[in-house]
Specification:
It contains 12 helices and no strands. By secondary structure, the chain is mainly alpha-helical. The longest helix has 29 residues.
Length: 301
């Protein structure tokens, strides 16, 4: 295989093991995104889904442009791809999640969000010609099994609906396509430069829905704090970590971040909300970690 752009060693980013900084990016993004479902639930108690969908990229945009490296110029030829990422990586999925969480629990949304590695692999193979090793595919399968073990007990007792599930799956599919588009751009310009522009496009695209939702929302300090956590943290810092990780290890192995999201959601449920976990969910957490380990192994294909 030809070495990916931005790899000084000449080795494909998909072919080398994770380094300590890669693990730091992985854990940081997973922790912030795992908490985002809880924060969105808090915000939705006082705000319309449209306002939540708008404030997330808008606040993230402000955080991202604060990075000096975000302001470096980009080639005009890459602007169409950046606009596509604005729609696929932020505007569309960030609109789907608050809509879905009107009908499904945040823990279930977090579980379904972990289907991103599957959609990333499928999009990579079908649309981008990405070659994926057998070990990584095995990791995806093991991770999906762990997701099911964690999520099914919750789904069986929660008030989920088919509409909410479909909305989350549409968002996850959009993430999978975007992950494959983002890698080359991130390696060329760096994460802040790409994401600041992507968040700006998403802010413009979600503005009409945000204005519509503003009339059906009420002020709450708790909701405002939740918006800051989801916007600045989830859309700003976590996206920078994830986009940087795409450039360092490739889109399929970056998507293992979503394996850890249900684990974070489960811990928050126990500590913050007083929820209880059954044995199957604990076993599922261990299975997820095993899947994450397999997916981050060096490719030998």
């Amino acid at each position: 295989m030809v070495a990916d752009e931005g790899d000084p060693t000449g080795e494909s980013v998909e072919a080398r093991p994770f380094l300590p900084f890669d693990w730091l990016l992985l854990v940081g993004a997973a922790g912030i995104w795992g908490a985002s479902f809880l924060f969105m639930d808090v915000a939705l108690d006082h705000e319309h889904p449209g306002l939540v969908a708008f404030l997330r990229p808008a606040l993230g945009m402000l955080a991202l442009w604060a990075f000096p490296s975000a302001r470096q110029p980009v080639d005009p030829a890459d602007l169409p791809r950046l606009v596509a990422l604005g729609a696929l990586w932020m505007a569309f999925p960030l609109t789907m999640f608050p809509l879905a969480q009107q009908w499904i629990d945040s823990s279930v949304a977090g579980m379904l969000n972990s289907g991103m590695p599957v959609t990333t692999v499928l999009a990579g193979v079908a649309l981008f010609g990405v070659r994926t090793g057998r070990v990584q595919l095995l990791g995806v399968a093991v991770g999906v099994a762990g997701i099911a073990m964690i999520g099914l007990p919750t789904a069986a007792t929660g008030s989920t609906t088919g509409v909410g599930v479909v909305l989350v799956l549409l968002a996850v599919t959009s993430y999978g396509v975007a992950a494959n588009l983002a890698g080359p751009l991130q390696r060329r310009y760096g994460a802040p430069a790409v994401l600041a522009r992507v968040a700006t496009v998403a802010t413009v695209l979600t503005l009409p829905y945000g204005l519509f939702g503003l009339a059906d929302s009420s002020w709450s300090t708790k909701a405002f704090a939740a918006n800051l956590a989801v916007g600045v943290g989830g859309t700003g810092l976590a996206y920078v970590a994830a986009a940087t990780l795409i450039g360092r290890v490739g889109p399929v192995r970056m998507s293992v971040v979503t394996y850890l999201v249900p684990v974070v959601a489960a811990v928050l449920g126990v500590v913050v909300l007083g929820e209880t976990l059954v044995v199957w969910q604990l076993l599922g957490a261990l299975t997820l970690i095993g899947g994450a380990w397999l997916t981050t192994r060096a490719s030998r294909s």
